[in-house]
Amino acid sequence: MKNIWRLVLAGTMAAVLGFSCARALPGAPSAGVPDAVLDQPVVLALNAPVAIAPQSQEPSGDPSEAAMPLILEFRQVNQDSRCPETVTCVWPGQARVVLTLHQGEVNLGEVELVLQPGNAAAAVETLGGYTMQLTELSPYPQASGAIAPEAYQATVVVSQSTMP
Asked: What Å distances lie between residue 14 and 7, 133, 152, CA to CA?
């Protein structure tokens, strides 16, 4: 009877340890449970990775390739010179953010996207076959003071690139 309980206890511990070690990246969302989908806006908090379900692809012989979610992370705000609300400015300013993109364990790279009135192209970059478009950075600056880095949220749309 003691051996049965030892086996049950050992099996339970193995399952718990296996489940807790299942994350692909430190701080990344759980594998297999995407938080977002392609072609839909996703709101990113600073340094909080989000999993995005990749579009289904033709079988390539490698079953792990199509199943890997994209991991998108908002890394930092390089600049936020947007004209604060209720202030009259000569220049509307701009905001620059850095994003990283992974697919499984593969780092597809890092991009800087720029929100600048009249320059929509600066808010779009293609990386690893995926196009990322920064559509909003909040909160919007106020005349009353600076924004704490952890308060920022970036809204991004990721889509599969049509370019080869």
From this structure: 10, 42, 39
